[in-house]
């Protein structure tokens, strides 16, 4: 479970695109290393590596994992913890590079480059107004048999997660005491967003986990597709609070 202190930044974080020319200090780099060491995976069996690296354009955190759906989800889950934690530390962060592998990346054996988080001293405000979120009104699946207002309320922080091109690929459905997690089928956009949208699902699930913890609950994760499918979506996994 992510650190509960990361819940509050969900409602004010924003992507920082303007940075000062001031390099991160040794103290700030120490903060970053502390937060990298503190991340908690969603799926402990999925291997990943986080690398703090510098370039001519500043500091980066490179994320490496196997290129499978659940490995990418797990990586997004842990990297979003860094996004929120470094916001609390007063640093700017930006999901960067649109999935393109940088020349200086160094994937460990068996893993591949997945995503980069740019970090630095912000030259613009770190926070946004709640009205600044451009997100779907609902992320809970509802048909004539299911209408889960309480689930929608619980998962409101998940709705505010950032995603590539603001594609918002996530959807949740209820099944008894379980919350099923679905990813939108992409069609032609899969050529551009396939792996990134799997990482987006992990970002969203980080927010969902923090919301569940805020409600005083824990959860377990299982991968067992429910009998009822959701049209135009792939089943991903199930949270059982």
Describe the structure.
The protein is of the alpha+beta class. It has 2 domains: 4-120, NADH Oxidase (3-Layer(aba) Sandwich), CATH 3.40.109.10; 130-240, NADH Oxidase, CATH 3.40.109.30. Helix content is 28%, strand content 22%. The chain contains 5 helices and 8 strands; from the N terminus they run H-E-E-H-E-E-H-H-E-E-H-E-E. A 4-stranded antiparallel beta sheet has the order 1-2-4-3. Helix 1 (26-38) packs across helix 2 (69-88) and helix 2 crosses helix 5. It is globular. The model has no long low-confidence stretch (mean pLDDT 91).
Break the fold down into its secondary structure elements and pairings:
Blueprint lengths: L25 H13 L9 E8 L2 E8 L3 H20 L3 E5 L15 E9 L28 H6 L1 H4 L10 E6 L2 E7 L5 H25 L5 E3 L10 E8 L1
Antiparallel strand pairs: 1-2, 2-4, 3-4, 5-6, 6-8, 7-8
Class from secondary-structure proportions: alpha+beta
Broad CATH class of the largest domain? Alpha Beta
Beta-sheet strand percentage? 15-25%
Instruction: Summarize the biggest pleated sheet.
Output: 4 strands, antiparallel
User: How far apart are the termini?
Assistant: 12 Å
CATH architecture of the largest domain: 3-Layer(aba) Sandwich
Q: How many domains in all?
A: 2
- CA radius of gyration is 17 Å
The oligomeric status of these chains comes to: single chain
Taken in chain order, the helices and strands follow as: HEEHEEHHEEHEE
What is the number of beta strands? Answer: 8
Instruction: Give the low-pLDDT segments.
Output: none
CATH topology of the largest domain: NADH Oxidase
Mean pLDDT: 91
What is the overall number of helices?
5
How helical, in percent, are the residues? 25-40%
